[in-house]
Amino acid sequence: MLKDMTLGQYYPVDSRIHNLDPRTKFLISFAYILGIFLLKTPLQYGVLFLGLLAVVRLSKVPFSFILRGVKPILFILVFAFVMNLFLTPGEILWSFWKLKITKEGIKLALLMVARLFLLIMGSSLLTLTTSPIKLTYGMESIFSPLKRFGFPVHEMSMMMGIALRFIPTLTAETDKIMKAQMARGADFETGNIFKRARALVPILVPLFLSSIQRASELADAMEARCYHGGEGRTRLHELIYKKNDYLAGIIFIVFFGIILWLPKII
Amino acid sequence: MSLKLENVSYVYNPDSLYETTALSDISFEISQGETVGIIGHTGSGKSTLLQLLNGLLRPDGGSLVVAGTPITKSSKNLAELRKKVGLVFQYPEYQLFEESVEKDIAFGPKNQGLSEEEIAIRVSEAMALVGLDHSYRDKSPMELSGGEKRRAAIAGVLAMKPEILMLDEPTAGLDPQGREKLLNQLMGLKGKLTLIFISHSMEEVAKIADRILVLSKGTLVLDKPVEEIFEEEELLREVGLDIPVVAKLFARLREQGCDYKRNYYTLEEGLKVLLEGEDA
Ligand SMILES: Nc1ncnc2c1ncn2[C@@H]1O[C@H](COP(=O)(O)OP(=O)(O)OP(=O)(O)O)[C@@H](O)[C@H]1O
Ligand SMILES: [Mg+2]
User: Fold this and answer.
1) What is the average pLDDT value for chain A, to the nearest integer?
2) CA-CA distance, B80 to B97, in Å (whole number)?
3) N or C: which end of chain B has fewer CB within 10 A?
4) If you measure CA to CA, which chain B residue comes closest to A68?
């Protein structure tokens, strides 16, 4: 029932992209997101898209799987396209009643969609190729300088890790409770908004109860294994940059450098 | 005829990395009033099968008719069907959500659109059936013990007066006494409705069911009346199941040359035969 949630989902296969250090992927993704906003010409977007396709290929995640992650935000893409198409002033190509399509509008709308699309595809590639655990280790390591200012970096990343870890568990649990109540004749699909909101009570109450219980059990289990925060804690797998990480960084910088230079060359 | 399956199959997460074929090519019929036990190793597809029979999952292949309603991949509005087919889930305790046991049991009948008086009668009857007395009415479900919660949850389904009642491992996690009590209450329902239940214990199935379906890795490997099923010791062992101790004992006695008129598999019968020589 709760399918199609590829955004933020991990795709467990073995690939060069999966094996990169999470910090490398994190930093590159961050630079990539900032970088997208520097691009201006269609050529630049095209080349970046090709580059991204190459990375997708390397990651062994099927392209169709990534596209499924874009589906939920299709609405936003369409909305951005339509708004930009009609609301950009400039040289009028076509007009009807109060709606005007301008040359600048078309250009802007297309760029906007390309931008959003590349943004989402790129960032979902990060979560698809990095397990939640590695992702939080990476974040903790990147933000660890903030510890000096008293920011609870370890606790935050632990919280995020646990939250990510429990998304599938809670999804399965919700599905189970929904089915059990449907078997008792509960109806979640018809009626007005108030009726539907009320229909959620039989799901939410058991879900909250079991989540609270689960949380307290988890806390006990962690304490029983002597967890007491990040102080002096070592890891089984320390994060170390390897050859491929440097290589990935260099390739990214060179590739993005070329893209930024493109309009000046051609 | 209560329900009929022909070559039914079901796949979880089709076309993805996590694709699992949970059931393939399942065919059987169950007639009105039968009591059928479903048994199989963990992960053999038992729970999936029950959810298909209740229309909570739609089959990916084959045809499926339950209580006169066909269920297909595109079936909509199976609420009517679910009024006739009650399903008690594995560990049903988590489905309790109301502030009192009474209200929680009334949830199903209320969804059926019954009148207040009718609901009150149904709740009382269901509570009596599972052995919860009046003092439990106003208790919060959260205050009950595990076994009492289980019984309240089962009462919640019984109160809907289904034509077909399905239970997914109703005795899992109960203590021996609670298990015995619940089994006796299920025995009491025999014949009054079509009863289908899942269990991990051969002893339990042998005690209650008239007929046993054995699932293994998503296929139906055996479908026989209880009296005959334990002759298949080899096959059962192959799919990771054991036969009741009493059935085993009589099989060995036969090997030793003792002759009995029929198969025995419950403790009560076995004792009668061995101690009182009642072989008929
Ligand atoms: N929601 C689900 N998503 C994906 N796969 C599932 C899901 N539920 C069950 N499966 C898979 O389908 C197969 C059959 O599962 P099912 O729950 O029907 O087994 P079962 O016979 O009830 O086992 P048990 O005795 O442990 O309850 C298993 O391989 C299981 O991993
Ligand atoms: Mg099961």
Assistant:
1) 86
2) 23
3) C
4) B16
> What radius of gyration, in Å, describes the C-alpha atoms of chain B?
20
User: Cα separations (Å) of B271 from B69, B248, B275?
Assistant: 45, 14, 6
Residue B23 host element (H or E): strand B20-30
CB contact under 8 A, A181 and B56: no
Question: Against a cut of 0.90, is the pTM above it?
Answer: no
Q: What is the pLDDT of residues B156-167, one digit of tens each?
A: 999 999 999 999
Q: What CA–CA distance (Å, rounded) separates A162 from A171?
A: 14
- Identify the H or E element spanning A82: helix A74-87
Judged by DSSP in three states, B133 sits in coil
CB contact, 8 Å: B114 with chain A? no
C-alpha B26 to ligand 2 mean position (Å): 17
Q: What are phi and psi of A139, to 5 degrees?
A: -65, -40
Integer distance in angstroms from the first to the last C-alpha of chain B? 31
What ipTM was predicted for this assembly?
A: 0.84
For ligand 1, atom 30, the nearest C-alpha belongs to: B43
Tokens of A159: 């919280």
Average pLDDT over residues A108-122: 89
Question: Taking Cα atoms as reference points, which of B211, B145, B221 lies closest to residue B178?
Answer: B145
- B-interface mutation test, from A63, A184, A190, A207, most B Cβ less than 10 A away: A184
Which residue has a Cα nearest atom 18 of ligand 1? B45
The predicted model gives A1-19 an average pLDDT of 71
The pLDDT assigned to B201 comes to 85
Q: Whose atoms come closest to the Cα of B45: which ligand?
A: 1
The predicted structure's pLDDT at residue A1: 40
The pLDDT tens digits of the residues spanning B94-106 come to: 889 999 999 999 9
Query: pLDDT > 70: what percent of chain B?
Result: 100
CB within 6 Å of ligand 1 — which residues? B 12-13, 20, 22, 40, 42-48, 90
Return d(Cα B141, Cα B153) in angstroms, integer: 9
Q: Which chain B residue shows the shortest CA-CA distance from A2?
A: B13
Cβ contact (<8 Å) for B56 and A183? yes
Task: Please report, as a single letter, which amino acid is at residue A66.
Answer: I
DSSP state of A212: H
| B146–A contact, CB cutoff 8 A | no
Give residue A37's Cα distance to chain centre. 18
Token pair belonging to A195? 């009726």
A162-179 residues labelled b (16+ CB within 10 A) or e (exposed): eebebeeeeeebbebbbb
| Number of other CB atoms surrounding residue B223 within 10 Å | 15
3-state secondary structure of B70: strand
